[in-house]
Design a protein that fits this description.
Aminopeptidase, OB fold (Dihydrolipoamide Acetyltransferase, E2P), 4-stranded antiparallel β-sheet
Length: 339
């Protein structure tokens, strides 16, 4: 029809999977993204992928390494890819243990190639940077396949969290209820009704806008993984697949403490830089206006530390890590117990 503008057509994705997502059985391969660089003119980024398919049941897309310095997810998902058999599955499980593979290889939050933060790159671009190209492939080729999207996170090198599974408060309350039921099935020690301080460009937002059940975690931090948090990740993802009907059986029963983040006052930010001292340990109670952390000046002696006070009463659910902090960094997060 004349007089109407049509939306521009997006270019084909440069990412080529070496697996067939519709083929029955188990496949191990890669998402191959051409990347010309100094040491390989016709090189590629090879993102590991595993597909286990049996029948026409639900599709679960499981990811870790969205940030490259978070390890519970990759540990749980590489293990799941090695152990899950097609005859155990009703439907399809797509496992990508290290979504931002360049960042994962470099043990950094963002990609060393383009400094791209994968969780702020959606919907991506097929003609953009390496990170944008990977995000575009997920946006247009993987998310549309999925019924359930589970993305593992932890605090990386600069945050430490109580081990919790989480879903977001949504305008679509039916979708929200399905996501919260999946959170409860995961069975982490804590379950969070999560508020984001910045949701623009997030993988979470991309999935939720498509009407997908999206669930995530924060399982520790400090740029490492503990035995306890890896156990939570491994058992939790099996619980989720059972809850979705992809694996047989019932989720392992566990007690979880629900937490809520009612407002952005739950976040405490530093107004100064220096030596960070937490005054409250994770899981301990916090009262509004209580000093939760102090920042000690390190330029010279004789100056009093800057005090960071809680904007909400609850328990400490996250804290800055490790010892030095900059102005604008998140110092602490307070969440409220839900009975």
């Amino acid at each position: 029809m004349t007089g109407m503008l049509s939306a521009p057509l997006l270019a084909a994705s440069p990412v080529t999977p070496t697996v067939d997502f519709d083929q029955p059985g188990v496949q191990h391969g890669a998402l191959r993204l051409p990347y010309s660089r100094d040491d390989s003119a016709w090189g590629s980024v090879m993102i590991p992928v595993c597909v286990i398919r049996n029948g026409e049941g639900p599709v679960a897309l499981l990811t870790g390494g969205n940030h490259g310095d978070e390890y519970e997810g990759p540990l749980a998902l590489f293990d799941l890819a090695n152990s899950l058999k097609p005859d155990q599955v009703n439907g399809t499980v797509i496992i990508i243990p290290a979504m931002n593979y360049p960042a994962f290889q470099a043990a950094t939050r963002t990609s060393p190639i383009d400094k791209g933060n994968m969780n702020r790159a959606f919907p991506g671009r097929p003609d953009g940077t390496v990170t944008q190209k990977i995000a575009d492939y997920f946006q247009r080729h993987l998310l549309p396949r999925a019924d359930l999207v589970f993305d593992f996170h932890s605090g990386g090198r600069t945050l430490d969290f109580l081990p919790f599974c989480a879903a977001h408060l949504l305008d679509d309350k039916t979708l929200e209820a399905r996501a919260m039921a999946t959170v409860e099935a995961f069975g982490a020690p804590y379950s969070m009704r999560m508020l984001e301080i910045d949701s623009v460009g997030m993988y979470d937002t991309a999935a939720e806008e498509m009407g997908k059940v999206f669930v995530t975690t924060e399982l520790g931090g400090g740029g490492t993984a503990r035995a306890a948090t890896v156990r939570i990740a491994r058992q939790g993802i099996l619980n989720v697949l059972k809850h979705a009907g992809i694996l047989e059986g019932e989720p392992q029963p566990t007690e979880t403490q629900w937490l809520d983040m009612p407002s952005d006052e739950c976040f405490c930010f530093s107004q100064d830089e220096g030596l960070f001292e937490t005054m409250v340990d994770l899981g301990e109670p916090v009262e509004k206006d209580e000093v939760v952390a102090r920042v000690h000046p390190i330029i010279r002696t004789g100056n009093a530390p800057y005090e960071i006070r809680a904007g909400y009463s609850g328990i400490l659910s996250a804290r800055h890590f490790p010892g030095l902090i900059k102005a604008g960094d998140c110092a602490a997060v307070v969440a409220v117990k839900v009975d």
